[in-house]
């Protein structure tokens, strides 16, 4: 099936849940993204800063770009002028740098805090304790040029659907608790990014508002040894 067909089918599937579809286009050529764009797709996710910037320069300017991979503080400046959402914030230090670069660009940058939910050592993210410590800190409260609009998580890469379901469920419960404790009056805190090609159906059942789907749209990726996938 074509990229356009894959997007159409996914949109049909997620329609009831009203979740957003992030087309994860890492490693794919700009032509593939253009094809998705022509089929109506406007949100794209990339995990490498340099690749994201190159594609941003080549492709239509109404695309909303999401960074979904581990971000080094020294690279924030390259995406700060245009990034729509940084989904993978995993430290206060990074959040402070995003705030600084956002201020330089006279804008507010939306972020998700990435929470570690998987039973694997390779996944980035904050533990529950670290998440709460961050949100309680004075350093965080002082940041005026970032906005935390929700949480992101990656489930364990396993065939065990019950385990994946449990991990997404836990993240959902955590999200609800964080909402009540820290963002009760903030309507913008509403995004729960969870689910990829192999597990987005389970994620939608657990209340995902944003699924990040790559191979189901664009086909399998050629294996490259990126540090974070
Ligand atoms: C690559 C990636 C995805 C998409 O993976 P697929 O299995 O191709 O759908 C989603 N989220 C993150 C963080 C990724 O790195």
Automatic annotation (TrEMBL):
Residues 3-220 form the Alanine racemase N-terminal domain. Its cofactor is pyridoxal 5'-phosphate. One of its GO terms (molecular function) is pyridoxal phosphate binding. It holds the Pfam family Ala_racemase_N. Belongs to the pyridoxal phosphate-binding protein YggS/PROSC family. Pyridoxal 5'-phosphate (PLP)-binding protein, which is involved in PLP homeostasis. This is Pyridoxal phosphate homeostasis protein.
């Amino acid at each position: 099936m074509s990229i356009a067909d894959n997007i159409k089918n996914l949109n049909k599937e997620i329609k009831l849940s009203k979740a957003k579809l992030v087309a994860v286009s890492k490693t794919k050529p700009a032509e593939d993204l253009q094809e998705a764009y022509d089929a109506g797709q406007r949100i794209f996710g990339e995990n490498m800063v340099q690749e994201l910037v190159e594609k941003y320069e080549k492709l239509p300017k109404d695309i909303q770009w999401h960074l979904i991979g581990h971000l080094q503080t020294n690279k924030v400046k390259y995406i700060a002028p245009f990034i729509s959402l940084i989904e993978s914030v995993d430290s206060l230090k990074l959040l402070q740098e995003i705030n600084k670069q956002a201020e330089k660009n006279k804008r507010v940058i939306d972020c998700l805090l990435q929470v570690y939910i998987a039973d694997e050592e390779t996944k980035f993210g904050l533990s529950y304790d670290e998440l709460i410590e961050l949100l309680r800190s004075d350093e965080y409260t002082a940041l005026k040029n970032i906005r935390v609009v929700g949480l992101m998580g990656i489930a364990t890469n396993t065939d065990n659907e019950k385990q994946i379901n449990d991990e997404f469920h836990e993240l959902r419960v955590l999200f609800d608790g964080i909402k009540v404790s820290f963002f009760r009056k903030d309507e913008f805190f509403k995004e729960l990014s969870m689910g990829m090609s192999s597990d987005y159906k389970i994620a939608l059942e657990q209340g995902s508002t944003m699924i990040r789907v790559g191979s189901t749209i664009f086909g399998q990726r050629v294996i490259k040894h990126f540090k974070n996938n």
